[in-house]
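I am still getting used to backbone structure tokens and would like to learn alongside you. To get us started, please write out a protein record for me. Start from the sequence, derive the backbone structure tokens from it, and show both lines together. Once you have written the record down, we can walk along the chain together:
***
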Amino acid sequence: MLKLPSRPDLAQLRRQAKDLLRAAKNGDHLAAARIRAVSSELTLSAAQLAVAGAYGFTNWAELKAEVERREILTDRDLDRLAALLAENPGAATAEMRHWCDHPLGPTPLSYVAMLRYDTGRGVWRDVPGTGAMVRALLRAGAPVDGEPGDSETPLITAASYGDAAVARELIEAGAALDATATADAGGVPGGTALRHAAVFGMTEVVDVLIAAGARVLSIAEAAAAGDVTGWLRGDTPEQDRVRALVMAADHQRLDVIDQLLDAGTPIDAVDPWDRQPLRLASRNGRAASVEHLLARGADPAFLDAVER
């Protein structure tokens, strides 16, 4: 079965159907066989049906609706979304099917939470308007914590992708702050939204979650949040302190960096996931952390490792 491309183009799909029909009429037996498999006539509607079937849809209208729904969500077109949901409220909850870049079939709510990462170009981007899209989807019946059996909640997804606007809307709607991803989930299996935001360096979402009352469960999360009070003790294991230093560097919590270093945490240590404070801060563009760590004696050779 074919998969729809990450940047869908309905006009291109129409051309595929026209080209298929043209080939069949010009004597291409394989093209004719594809159309004959769904219809006894060589017509454009039959060719469109064959193309829809190749992508896993039962008819052309279903394929067209799915392509248009993704276009609406990707463009954050609130007016078109309102019209779509008025006509078909189920579009707020139905999984998004047969996409090459989202094979697990995200719900529209989770898809909007992922929009900061452009899968077609492989780049991060600003996506204003996601909060309003989330409000519209929630009003239309999208479950704020996702469906039973989902590997993670929409809030966890928003935390992983760093969309603070989506996180705020979900929290306002009652999202479970302490829900955890499943053990087989991607990202941070078993982790809360706060842990995902901390691990992936999404500081703005960390701040949103902390302000909303998310529980801090480790010194590493506390470092990401900027306050290790009560977590940093004389008996805190070195590896825990190293993990916390990595988090503090990635989230530019300079006071926490100082607290950890003053407690004897080795500045150039590597954590169990092969993350090193200066190297990670440099790779993720945390200029304040890079400057601060160097001033505190970090080995600049780790910057060379980033260059390589």
